[in-house]
């Protein structure tokens, strides 16, 4: 492709990178198991929308601010860490609701679920830095912004497809567990993992360190 180097290698690397578990994977699996296939699909699409937002920000040059400004990076990192901790608390609460009854456990609108997934990805500053560090390796010198956007969209598509597959698989497991003690404990485990990821992000070293 014009302006893009080693596109096949980029696709393969994108697939492998998307397979690495992280906050996005945890969110999709947790929502799929707790709330079902529809929630899992919305979660995967929301995560994809977050990655798409990162692509747009990187293409506009705004993500470069995170790479050069320690203050901006720390501000986004703090927001992302606090958001992950908040998601953890919500998962703990969902665990209690599941123990009380399945109707309460699914009381979340589609828009709210999509927004939560979008913010989970968007508020991770390491995703923005990843786009700045990874994508340029496959763009020919002087090629302009179009190849960068195309690579970003390719990464979004591969990630979203993986997220959808993950959601459908996890929803099947959730159908067996939902409404019982196992589902409640799974929500609590997801909550603990979200809190742990939030603390890990908060304590991680700045890119400028």
Task: Describe the fold and architecture.
The structure is a single chain. This protein has 209 residues and is mainly alpha-helical. The protein has one domain (23-203). 80% of the residues lie in helices and 0% in strands. It has ten helices and no strands. The chain has helices at 7-19, 23-35, 37-59, 63-68, 70-100, 102-105, 110-122, 125-134, 146-177, 181-203. The longest helix has 32 residues, at 146-177. It starts with 6 loop residues before the first helix and ends in a 6-residue tail after the last helix. Residues 100-105 have low confidence and may be disordered.
Q: SSE order in H/E notation?
A: HHHHHHHHHH
Summed over residues and divided by their number, the pLDDT gives a mean of 79
Overall 3D geometry? globular
Structural class: mainly alpha
Instruction: Report the uncertain regions.
Output: 100-105
Number of helices: 10
Determine the strand fraction and express it as a percent band. Answer: under 5%
State the separation between the terminal residues, measured CA to CA. Answer: 37 Å
Largest sheet: none
Q: What count of structural domains?
A: 1
Helical proportion?
Answer: over 70%
Care to count the β-strands? 0
- Radius of gyration equals 18 Å
Please outline the helices and strands.
Blueprint: H1 7-19, H2 23-35, H3 37-59, H4 63-68, H5 70-100, H6 102-105, H7 110-122, H8 125-134, H9 146-177, H10 181-203
Helix pairs in contact: 1-9, 2-3, 2-9, 2-10, 3-7, 3-8, 3-9, 5-7, 5-10
Organism: Crenobacter luteus
Keywords: Cell membrane, Membrane, Transmembrane, Transmembrane helix
GO molecular function, one term: amino acid transmembrane transporter activity
């Amino acid at each position: 492709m014009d302006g893009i180097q080693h596109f096949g290698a980029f696709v393969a690397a994108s697939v492998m990178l998307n397979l690495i578990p992280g906050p996005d994977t945890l969110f999709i699996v947790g929502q799929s198991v707790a709330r079902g296939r529809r929630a899992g699909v919305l979660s995967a699409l929301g995560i994809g929308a977050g990655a798409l937002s990162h692509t747009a920000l990187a293409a506009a040059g705004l993500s470069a601010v995170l790479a050069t400004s320690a203050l901006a990076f720390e501000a986004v990192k703090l927001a992302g860490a606090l958001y992950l901790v908040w998601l953890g608390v919500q998962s703990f609460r969902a665990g209690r609701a599941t123990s009380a009854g399945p109707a309460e456990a699914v009381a979340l609108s589609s828009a709210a679920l999509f927004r939560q997934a979008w913010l989970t990805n968007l508020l991770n500053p390491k995703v923005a830095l990843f786009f700045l560090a990874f994508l340029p390796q496959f763009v020919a010198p002087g090629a302009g912004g179009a190849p960068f956007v195309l690579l970003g969209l390719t990464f979004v598509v591969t990630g979203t497809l993986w997220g959808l597959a993950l959601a459908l698989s996890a929803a099947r497991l959730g159908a067996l567990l939902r409404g019982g003690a196992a589902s409640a404990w799974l929500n609590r485990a997801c909550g603990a993992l979200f809190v742990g990821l939030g603390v890990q992000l908060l304590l991680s070293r700045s890119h400028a360190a």
